């Protein structure tokens, strides 16, 4: 089973447990003024559909930087009586790996950070880990 298959099953299981999780893609892209190329008379080789970005600036995206988990969200938590018994949300970070997939140190650090602040940092190699 691929990591993507596991991720989809983990999302379903998390939802059944009352969590609301979202895919957290980590990466970098370019933004600026884009121009779609139809015909280009210059010597640069361009193909139909290529895009030139003028005044380009890099933009990083995703929560948690390089170690950010695959899934982030909240889970409902019923607090104790001394907290008036209201339901609150707790931050959840789920790193999804295949059974043999390796967790990068940055990913382990992010899960530990979330847990250290009262959130729930989970490593899921199958839906049963939720």
Structural overview:
The protein is α+β, with helices and mostly antiparallel strands and 130 residues long. The chain has two domains: 3-26 and 62-129, Trna Endonuclease, Chain: A, domain 1, CATH 3.40.1350.10; 28-61, no CATH class. The chain contains two helices and six strands; from the N terminus they run αβββββαβ. Strands 1-4-5-6 form a four-stranded mixed β-sheet. A hairpin with an 8-residue loop joins β4 (71-78) and β5.
Structure summarized in a few sentences:
With 130 residues, this protein is an alpha+beta fold.
Give the count of helical stretches: 2
Structural class from helices and strands? alpha+beta
Strand order of the largest sheet: 1-4-5-6
Give the mean pLDDT: 89
What are the key terms here?
130 residues; alpha+beta; Trna Endonuclease, Chain: A, domain 1; 4-stranded mixed sheet; two-stranded antiparallel ribbon; 6 strands; 20% helix
How are the elements arranged and paired?
Blueprint: H1 3-16, E1 20-23, E2 27-36, E3 51-61, E4 71-78, E5 87-96, H2 105-116, E6 120-124
Parallel strand pairs: 5-6
Antiparallel strand pairs: 1-4, 2-3, 4-5
């Amino acid at each position: 089973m691929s990591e993507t298959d596991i991720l989809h099953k983990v999302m379903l299981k998390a939802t059944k447990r009352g969590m609301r999780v979202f895919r957290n893609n980590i990466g970098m892209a370019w933004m600026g003024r884009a121009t779609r190329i139809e015909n280009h008379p210059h010597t640069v080789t361009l193909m139909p559909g290529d895009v030139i970005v003028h005044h380009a600036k890099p933009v990083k995206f995703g929560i948690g930087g390089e170690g950010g988990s695959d899934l982030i969200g909240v889970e409902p938590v019923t607090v104790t009586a001394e907290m008036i018994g209201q339901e609150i949300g707790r931050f959840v970070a789920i790193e999804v790996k295949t059974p043999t997939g390796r967790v990068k140190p940055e990913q382990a650090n992010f899960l530990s950070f979330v847990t250290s602040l009262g959130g729930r940092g989970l490593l899921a190699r199958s839906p049963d880990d939720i």
